[in-house]
Amino acid sequence: MVRVKLLPEGKVVEVDLQEGDTVRDLLRALGLSSETHVVLVGGTPVPETEKIGAGEVVVVRVLSGG
After folding, report:
1. Sign of the C-alpha dihedral, residues 37, 41, 45, 48?
2. What is the pLDDT of residues 48-62, one digit of tens each?
């Protein structure tokens, strides 16, 4: 089980992941896209292929404008 903070909402959810699951698996479980969200582990952005391990996990919705 991984606790994930969703920003900018500030909502905290728990996601049931298996050992070896990646950032991509986490986003899929949350129903989110890597094109519109960035995942931070321990305050550092991580790529989709990174395995989710220990540390604070934060998912930030990326806003763009023009």
Report:
1. negative
2. 999 997 778 999 999
For residue 22, the 8-state DSSP code is B
CA atoms within 13 A on the CB side of 13: 14
Amino acid at 56: E
Strand partners, 22: 51
Q: Rounded to two decimals, what is the model's pTM?
A: 0.89
Rg (CA), the chain: 11
Q: How many residues are present in the chain? A: 66
- Structural domains of the chain sorted by starting position, each given as residue range(s) with its CATH number in brackets: 2-61 (3.10.20.30)
Q: Using pLDDT thresholds of 50, 70 and 90, give the confidence band for residue 1.
A: confident
